[in-house]
Fold this protein.
Amino acid sequence: MSVDLPTVKKIAQLARIAMDDAEAAALLPELNNILGWVEQLGEVDVTGVEPMTAVIPNTLRLRDDVVDADPLTGGGVRERVLANAPAPEHGFFGVPKVIE
Amino acid sequence: MSASDNNALTDLTVTEIRDGVADGSFTAREVAEGFNAAVAAAKSLNAFIVETPEKALAAADAVDARRAKGEPLGLMGGVPIGMKDLFCTEGVQSTAASHILEGFVPPYESTVSAKLWAAGAGMLGKLNMDQFAMGSSNETSFFGNVISPWRRNDGGNTDLAPGGSSGGSSTAVSARIAPAATGTDTGGSIRQPAAFTGICGIKPTYGRCSRWGVVAFASSLDQAGPMARTVRDCAIMLEAMAGFDPKDATSLDEPVPHWEGALNGDLKGKRIGIPREYRMEGIDPEIDKSWEAGKAWLRDAGAEIVDISLPHTQYALPAYYIIAPAEASSNLARYDGVRYGLRDLPEGAGLQDMYAATRAAGFGPEVKRRIMIGTYVLSAGFYDAYYTQAQKVRALIARDFERAWEACDLILAPTAPSAAFGLGEKSDDPIAMYLNDVFAVPASLAGLPAMSVPAGLNGQGLPLGLQIIGKPLDEQGVLDAGLAIEQRAAFDARPQEWWT
Amino acid sequence: MSDYRIQGETGDWEVVIGLEVHAQIATKAKLFSGASTEFGAEPNTQVSLVDAAMPGMLPVPNRECVRQAVRTGMALGASINRYSRFDRKNYFYADLPQGYQISQLYHPIVGEGQITVSLDEKNPDAATKSIGVERIHIEQDAGKLMHDQHPTMSYVDLNRSGVALMEIVSKPDMASPAEAGAYVRKLRAILRYVGSCDGNMEQGSMRADVNVSVRKPGDELGTRTETKNVNSVRFVQAVIEQEAKRQVALIESGGTVVQETRLYDPDRNETRSMRSKEDAHDYRYFPDPDLLPLELDDAFLAECRESLPELPDAKQARYESVLGLTPYNAATLIADADTARWFEALMAEGARIQRKDEKEVATASANWLLGELYGALNRLGLSLADSPVSPERGAELIALVADGTISGSIAKQVFEIMLETGDPAGKIVEDKGLKQTSDTGAIEAVVAKVLADNEDKVAQYRDGKEALFGFFVGQTMKAMQGKANPQVVNEILRKSL
């Protein structure tokens, strides 16, 4: 299955990567090359096979419902959370205004 | 040895440094100073993105102080290391070698790096790498290529690839500007660079090392691991890095064995499997020869060599190049210019335009390619054909290994299909680059522990590595076989210094 | 079948309604991080590195969130899926730091269930309808954006980001705004009973996405629209009505209904199409590789089941059949978990003080709560939770009437004083000497005087004007300052007249 230019632009939109026509056109054969190569997976007989869900057998461990039990995964760290923000505003993250 | 002989100090292995600091042969500070100087003199290799000599010294001083008080020094007491820039280090820029994280200073420390510092190691700096761990030659870094310290023996000065994605790590260790370095391995990114530069590197069982604080590439594949010059060094460092972390839901709740203490190169009773599908058509004859040598060495160590079949081997790479980009496309969605990292806000741009501009400006071409592939294979109408199919094939690959363990205890294979290539030689064709990982990817998909050890040099004087793959949680078996090879290969080649 | 129809130009139209209710799970910490879930904190003070989606962060699920979702499912009679999984829903928005929401698409934790609603909650004999529940799954809530703080910027607060939500998806079984309203109210009551969600729609801990389509009776299902984040029952009903009318008008004028997401504007009472938040809704769902499948064992499920309280329907049945309450009183008391709890405490204390079975004090307790207490609370603008009189104090007051210490009318006075002073009933009665007397001798004397003073009226009464009885009762009570036992007064008057 190969993609065309409109599809490349649609994917770029979905992935939020700005791309002009020239870039998309350059990417097109690269993507088709890779997609053509991975096509061979279709040859494999996967009857009765379940998709892998856990790499090494393990059970999902659940946490106790305790606030800020581990300082590394708890709240109350606004300074740290905002430390690298491009546009911190009075304790908020500033972003270009969105109209809903 | 003379304590003021810096060159001698930088020739030491992790084991030798640890023992020498512990018994007072030299101070940790002397070691740190030696390596700091070596790092500063080796800028032309471009192995480091950020150098942190003061941190190496501070850690060394702390170890020296503990020694003076008779307190324990830690598994890595006095050993300065390079930290791959994929690990978030508190207060020190962490970029994953990408422009989109340039200037990002994490307010937190990754679990693995925290464990290493707690074990007495010191940080020489943040090591260069392929951007977001995507690459096999360290040619996708925003901060420029890393150059392997190795040169072909043809007299030419072609810059060679150190392998990737942990190219800065492999370069630093093989150039002796760090005794050890952390790497991460998603589809061969520890093993292949180790093979290219003649050092040891081990990717442990999936879940052995915590992924908390490691910039995520492909969540079901990423694993941290040590890169150093000897098997023993790797055993020591892995012990310091591994362990259950409740902050990582995929972390294995298993005690960390004392791998170094139990190292044993006697392989009597072990069966070594040779997968026939790895012996691909057109295999490089020198690679084949080193593989044969490996078999002989292991036989000499007491092991029995058996033929095995891993029938779905040829589908491992394509499956990986669906699953890894798919997971990456989602993991990298958080790099959007809102909370940290680069923000590109063109005039009059709204929120979604800011995202698109930021990501276009911040991600390199290989990263974009993989995000595009990943987005596509997960998209409506293609999910079943690509992603689900790949996960089923992955299950079959894992099953191949499970069946193989009935006939053998460990598997021996080449690490990479060739020795190091020249920078720029393969960057035109992504698939040619991807094929570098043909031997490494299956063990990644199955989550198995796998190690590369140096086997010898090829005709051009470049290192070749051999790979040992083991059962889940059998790092000991893998290390032991690695040790057996190391003892017999007697690899003592080192790159001739040209970089200072 | 519901009678509700939209009258269009070409005839009558049926409405088909489905609701997706997002209910915040009432745990202390978030679904995948340890940050607090409390409402109203300063911006970004309840945000962990995990919630802010910093590089290298990983989710670890909160057991209590899982437990509450299971308990909720059990309360809806739903099948619990021992095996469920978390999936990533990928899209880009400023309130979604990871660039994906961790949800459950393919394997939700709870399967099919149902909720029985009354088609007229005020009428105990009204018909009921069973509304199907399709599934419940657990997912992360998003952060909040504010657009009015700055001329060119929106502000992002991630306090809410990562709070656990249950998404409760109904089947499209509702056919009118009334049915939808009843469903939301009943669901809210059940959630509060179970304790899995506080149901506070104003604060946003419970909100509804309203799916509406229209069709002519007998036709195939029409195209539906989804109006998101509706945060009151009244608005849910308004949305249904407005959206159904809009669709009918659109179709009848030759247009077609587009499947789209809309927002409700309460000021204009209309729904508007949303500017697309995410392109063509391609969410690229796939299993979250940071999380393993969730598997529940027998012990966990047994504990969930045993921990369930008596649920509204069962409680209502018990109030009627065992406690003998009227259907109206029963329905009113069980409508909210807190009210039922208050009532049961009142009743239990009453039974204790009076040394009787609960069913013997139930009716008096119910009447006092719904009559006297509610009347006072309404007057004072207070909720039951803020009642100045506790169930214990209320029970004491009721007991004093039951054992004849004071009359019903004196009790009302005592109650007023209780509200003002906070003193217990017994003390007030003592201090103010309000005990009623049943002393027949004293009452006979007063009655005799009343009759003597009103001979003309006595004659009229004896002639047949029975209504004057009340006059004599009043006069007697007045003369005794209300402290006569009314029953004894009645008996003596009857004998004397």
